[in-house]
Amino acid sequence: MIVLTFDIMPTIMLIDMDYFFAACEELRKPEIRSKPVVVGADPKKGMGRGVVSTCNYKAREFGIHSGMPISIAYRLKPDAVFLPVDDAYYESMSDKVMKIIKEYAEKFEQASIDEAFIDVSKAAPDKNSAIELAQTIKERIYKELGLPCSIGIGPNKLIAKMACEAAKPNGIKYVSSEEAKQFIADMPIGKLYGVGKKTAIKLESMGYKKVADLAKANLQKLISALGTYGIELYNYANGKDESPVQENYEIKSIGREHTFEKDTANEEEIEEAIAKLAKEVASDASAKGFAFSTVTLKLRYANFEEHLKSKGIGYSSKDERDVENTAISLFKNAYERGEPLRKIGVRVSGLTTFKGQKSLRDYL
User: Which residue has the higher pLDDT, 123 or 194?
Assistant: First the structure.
């Protein structure tokens, strides 16, 4: 007897929370919902040094966007609602969102605090069932948490990601495997996932203005210009992406950064800021159930030159003193004395989960 088997065509979804930080703030402050909301650094009446983390669509109407210097955002809309980043609150809301999404996933991959890929190939093998499932997920997240999201659906992670961008805000976009290549063909090359600003400029200088141009490129020419990354971008331009939805998404590091109000060479001020960051990082790691074994210090000087220094502590720890002492030691050894710093960062890695076990310091 001959048994015929048929492969199930993949159905991948990307669920991306719309203006997540700002949406969370609107949730606990309903009175600001009709106003432009900007979450990020303190604008200091246009003199702030940090950036916009996110903003709602009201703020975007005035040209404000994520990553913009907070000083410019303030100049564009000085009467907007400016709020500080509340990591603990957003992470608690993210946990609730991900818990709902996981219930519908055959495979689940959290891509960031506010987005996740899920493989639903068996549950939603065709367009109608996929859209129906996406609508169910969307409605449930909004009903239970009051947060909006957009969902892209495609035959792979690349197309799901780009479909999700097309679905924003608060929409659903389905792209079949047959439609995938044409869906992205007319997009500017800078819109292709994986193409940053510098790469876009380089590709445009090579004559690739649209994704369709890159899809027809000479592969050897791309490899010569971009190395093996050229192969990946060539495949993306043709709508191909074989990366699977990865189960058991793991956090590889946890960190915090601080931008000084004014560039500073005051070592006492710098060390105080490092100690504060160390405490926040250790607290965050502990709250997530992680111990750490490596500490990294980032120093960004006034001329934007950036140095990273790392050091292993020799054992797994969950003690903030280990973060602080190691980071301060790195600072004393790496800092170019007298040179003003613009920003510092502290990060821990070599993460392992703990279940209430004692660290070495607990025995000292």
Answer: 123
Highest-confidence range of 40-44, 55-59, 218-222, by mean pLDDT? 55-59
Active site residues: 115
Question: Domain ranges in the chain?
Answer: 12-18+88-180, 21-86, 184-237, 253-363
Residue 80's φ and ψ, nearest 5 degrees, are -70, 165
CATH numeric code, 253-363: 3.30.1490.100
Query: In Å, what is the CA distance from 262 to each residue of 11, 44, 185, 259, 342?
Result: 50, 12, 46, 8, 7
pTM: 0.72
pLDDT score of 316 more than 70: yes
End-to-end CA distance of the chain: 71
pLDDT value at position 341? 93
Query: Domain 12-18+88-180 - what CATH class?
Result: alpha beta
Query: Could you tell me which CATH class the domain 21-86 is placed in?
Result: alpha beta
Helical spans, DSSP H, in 193-306: 197-205, 211-215, 219-226, 229-237, 267-287
* Cα dist from 34 to 23, 31, 129, 133, whole Å: 12, 7, 35, 30
What's the token pair of residue 135? 């609508």
